[in-house]
Write a structure and sequence with these properties.
The chain is of the alpha+beta class and 611 residues long. The strands form six sheets. Strands 2, 3, 4, 5, 10 and 16 form a six-stranded mixed beta sheet that branches. Strands 12-11-20-19-18 form a five-stranded antiparallel beta sheet, with helices on both faces. A hairpin with a 5-residue loop joins strand 2 (60-61) and strand 3 (67-80).
Length: 611
């Protein structure tokens, strides 16, 4: 009985203590709310402002250590509507100080009413001088945030380097890790390496009084976080070669790509027309972008990796290699050519040259008839049960050279090109077709399509006698000892190295002995080359040229493609030859050829005619 009474007393005592504590808390809260104005004054006199600290994007160097992309200081002008001095706010003065139009300021302030406590961007790309003038005026509710923007010391590589822009609502939906006001790489290298280049944001927490003045760092900066700059990278691009390539391609539509065969490093990637990358930085960025977007020559389209062109006669070397591997062709085999190939009503024309001719001479003179014979021998090979089975094997060979698929480079916008399949022709011809139906493939025409990057890679395969390294545009990344291992692995074709020698010899003869490429000869450098004239149903033929030099231990492999340029030797060859000369000798002596290239005017009916 006594124990139960003691337990009851303890329980009642605990209840009283708990009730007393709650009464004290409630009484204190009531006193603060009803009588004590100290905290109200503190809340009125101080507010916390979370200011995002944006990191500098990683800078980009060329292979020689010179800047291709730098970051320079600028500022964003921000406003918090709740903090505005609405009575004494001088809108005209603010607009004059920071270069904002009254119309834009009114629009931003109208939008900011919907979220009065959130910061809103009034204007970006505020210069340091404008910021200093702004700081002197002390506009309540407005403040600046430090940013960095891109600048391009060499003014080259617009399509290659890409551009940076503010994230859109659609982008935010797909990438929730970004916030409104963030910048992101939208194309080219800026987009492909966005995770490395962007860095990591920081936050500075500031105490602000009722007049909008900064009283200091909250808790002495104990809760601030510092931004982390993006990683710099060294690209494989030779900035001087890139500039010269863009100068030679100016006024033309097409692309030029150069690769170092021994590494797969892209030395140059020119898409023409291009643009000055600085035009897509600053307050005129939107206007300049729209002008480019509606330009019929499409300067924003990177033809070097996206365009799908017929390879033309440059593709004949692939036919010869497949024929040698399949055993249906020997280097000494002779075929006649009487201004082309004829079979029944079908004719594939050719230009005048000696006949009959062997494989080396056929490559040097770019004989159409010779490779019509070779192509038929490949897909009509009796070891296969039918022409369609032979065609399937031909397709596998072609794709082993990197055609009809992505090369798996580190460039995000790479296209596939196109290699037709048996299924495609079955659909088109309802299953009834043969070698003669698809004979245009023998000379790189018909449905074949390739990118200039794939053609440059073919030149690298020939230079290496049967293999290539995956083309890539980054040489080194800050903090990383090496690149992805795939860039160090040899990618072999289905053709044995021994079969490349007669093809390479034919390309060498075409430049140095007598053929379609003699204009590409460089004294002492044993240049090997192959011209291509790709038929164009919409106007003048396309001009293309593929080359590497020197013949042994090659240092550069290159392809040039000029839409509506005519014969391969007319314009693509001179451009490629001048670029090879510049890269190999560090100078150009053929000034008359430079003048010829720069002064050539080409009419483009697809782009220039009035609509």
């Amino acid at each position: 009985m006594i124990d139960s009474q003691e337990g009851y007393i303890r329980m009642r005592t605990l209840q009283v203590v708990v009730l007393l504590i709650f009464a004290i808390i409630i009484g204190r809260l009531g006193y603060i709310q009803l009588y004590d104005s100290k905290y109200e004054k503190l809340a009125e006199n101080n507010a916390l402002r979370h200011v995002v600290q944006y990191p500098a994007r990683g800078e980009v160097f060329d292979r020689n250590g010179e800047y291709l992309v730098q970051s320079r200081e600028c500022y964003d002008l921000m406003v918090i509507y709740k903090e505005l001095d609405k009575a004494g706010f001088d809108t005209t003065r603010l607009c004059e100080v920071v270069g904002v139009t009254p119309k834009k300021l009114r629009r931003v302030l109208g939008d900011s009413r919907l979220r009065p406590r959130a910061p809103h961007v009034v204007s970006n790309y505020i210069s340091k001088e404008e910021k200093l003038r702004f700081d002197e005026c002390n506009f309540r509710g407005f403040y600046t945030v430090n940013r960095t923007v891109r600048c391009y010391p060499k003014n080259v590589g617009g399509n290659l380097l890409g551009f940076v822009g503010e994230v859109t609502p659609g982008y935010l939906n797909r990438h929730p890790e970004y916030k409104s006001g963030d910048y992101v790489g939208l194309s080219g290298l800026e987009s492909a390496f966005e995770p490395l280049l962007r860095g990591r944001k920081g936050v500075k927490i500031q105490e602000i009084d009722t007049h909008g003045a900064i009283k200091g760092a909250y808790m002495d900066g104990a809760q601030d976080t510092l931004p982390v700059a993006g990683k710099y990278m060294v690209s494989t691009i030779d900035g001087r070669l890139q500039r010269f390539g863009e100068e030679l391609m100016a006024g033309k539509v097409g692309a030029a790509v150069a690769i170092e065969p021994s590494t797969g490093e892209i030395l140059m990637m020119v898409s023409s027309p291009t643009y000055d990358p600085d035009d897509l930085v600053g307050r005129q960025r939107g206007n300049n972008y729209m002008k480019m977007l509606y330009n019929r020559r499409r300067p924003l389209f990177n033809r070097a990796v996206k365009a799908k062109y017929p390879p033309g006669s440059t593709f004949k070397v692939v036919q010869g290699l497949i024929g040698l591997q399949e055993g249906v062709l020997r280097p000494s085999d002779l075929h006649s050519c009487s201004m082309g190939y004829r079979m029944g009503r079908l004719k594939v024309g050719c230009h005048p040259h000696a006949s009959p001719l062997d494989l080396r001479f056929a490559v040097a003179t770019s004989c159409n008839a010779y490779f019509c014979y070779v192509f038929r021998d490949i897909i009509e090979n009796r070891k296969y049960g039918s022409v369609k089975e032979g065609f399937d094997m031909w397709e596998k060979y072609v794709k082993s050279f990197g055609f009809g698929r992505k090369l798996d480079s580190d460039f995000s916008d790479e296209g596939y090109g196109y290699v037709p399949t048996r299924e495609f022709y079955d659909r088109v011809y309802r299953g009834s077709w043969n070698a003669m139906t698809v004979l245009s493939l023998s000379i790189g025409q018909g449905e074949l399509g390739c990118t200039p990057l794939q053609l440059a890679n073919l030149a690298a395969i020939l230079a290496n006698r049967g293999y290539y390294y995956i083309p890539h545009i980054v040489k080194r990344i800050e903090g990383q000892d090496s690149l992805d291992r795939r860039f160090y692995q040899k990618q072999y074709t289905m053709v044995d190295p021994k079969h490349f020698e007669p093809i390479v010899e034919g390309m060498w003869r075409g430049v140095n002995v007598g053929g379609t490429s003699t204009r590409a000869r460089l004294e002492g450098w044993d240049v090997c080359g192959k011209t291509g004239t790709a038929q164009n149903p919409h106007g003048r033929d396309h001009s293309t040229f593929m080359s590497f030099a020197p013949k042994d231990n090659p240092k550069i492999a290159i392809s040039v493609y000029v839409e509506n340029g005519g014969f391969g030797a007319t314009i693509a060859l001179p451009i490629a030859s001048l670029l090879e000369e510049y890269y190999l000798t560090d100078t150009v002596r053929r000034h008359d050829l430079v003048r010829y290239v720069k002064e050539m005017q080409i009419y483009y009916p697809n782009y220039d005619r009035k609509r």
